[in-house]
Design brief:
The chain is of the alpha+beta class. The protein is 41% helix and 20% strand. It contains ten helices and ten strands. The strands form four sheets. It has a four-stranded mixed beta sheet with strand order 1-2-10-9. The chain has a two-stranded antiparallel sheet with strand order 3-4. A hairpin with a 2-residue loop joins strand 7 and strand 8. Helix 3 crosses helix 5 and helix 9 packs across helix 10. It is globular.
Length: 189
């Protein structure tokens, strides 16, 4: 069982669970649940990310179902909730940028990125998942627990992959490679 300790890498506080809990997404089992969680609150997004998405929106829309496009055109793709900017959802369920690839929910922004049509990959809060960043006079990284991610815990254990390793690209994107290397040195991996 992970400890309840917090340590610092430079000016970022990290809960031990980030370097202790096994995690590796298993899309075949979860079906992209992180893009379809039932909630009136969508993924957090920054003002800079909103500008990035506005610039690529016509391209991203080409990957979306008409329901999602209608939602974006009627309500926009983000909203302010409890003082935070959030991506909107369709019927308080699917992210407005989600699309179905067979029976798996995926991100249209990320698909456009992987198809080489846009440079922006997706909001950092989505890229970091299951890590959440809380601002407590600076960043604090914690693990966001969802029952839908039980298969990821099982796969992480089988693959011997911890959250920090699973989120390597997003952590480097946010804090840099030197920071990530310090995190992994702390983990002993």
């Amino acid at each position: 069982m992970p400890s309840d300790k917090i340590f610092a890498i430079n000016d970022v506080l990290v809960r031990d669970e980030i370097v202790e809990i096994p995690f590796s997404c298993d899309l075949k089992k979860c079906k992209g649940a992180c893009c379809t969680l039932e909630s009136e609150l969508g993924a957090p997004v920054t003002k800079k990310e909103i500008e990035e998405i506005e610039n690529i929106l016509p391209i991203v829309k080409s990957y979306l179902a008409q329901t999602n496009i209608d939602e974006i055109e009627e309500k926009g793709f983000y909203e302010m909730k409890d003082g935070e900017l959030m991506i909107t959802s369709v019927n308080n369920h699917d992210c407005v940028f989600s699309f179905w690839d067979n029976d798996i929910a995926k991100c249209a922004i990320e698909r456009a990125h992987f198809d080489g049509k846009v440079e922006f990959r997706k909001p950092i809060s989505c890229h970091l998942f299951p890590i959440r960043v809380t601002d407590f006079s600076g960043d604090v990284l914690r693990y966001e627990r969802f029952s839908e991610c039980t298969p990821a815990l099982e796969k992480g254990k089988a693959d011997n992959t911890i959250i920090a390793e699973f989120c390597k690209d997003s952590l480097i994107r946010l804090y840099g490679e030197d920071w990530y290397n310090k995190l992994m040195n702390y983990s002993g991996r």
